[in-house]
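Workshop exercise sheet. Pairs work together: one partner reads the sequence aloud, the other fills in the structure field after running the prediction. Swap roles for the next sheet.
Pair: D.N. / O.F.
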Amino acid sequence: MYATASTSVNTNYDYSEKLVGPQMYWVFYPETSYWLYSVWNRYADTLEYQSGVFGQIGETFWQYAVSMYSVTESRLHYTPVWFPDGLYEAVGQSFYGWSPAGQMYQQISDTVDIVGNMYDRFPVLNR
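Structure field:
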């Protein structure tokens, strides 16, 4: 699965130069049990800065880092093979944005539809 995100800060604050836009973006997937009771506790994919003005309040774009498991240097998230088919919620969180009143962050979610696994695409032949 591939994901991208964009962040921007809109304000009517008189001193917008004192604001710092988000500096990190994480995505949590269903196999992490949303950081509750899992061996993947607190595991997330960190999206890396792609373009825009890093740390500024203008629009910034984020993308997956190149997967260390990919021989083709793809930017994919790999869900475990044994994870059951179904609709699941993926949670994205941008943070380390700052204002004089403290940290600004936002959490959003969307659904992921898991259908099949890698063995469905690449059948294993019995000999």
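Discussion prompt: Residues 4-121 form one domain. What would you look at next?
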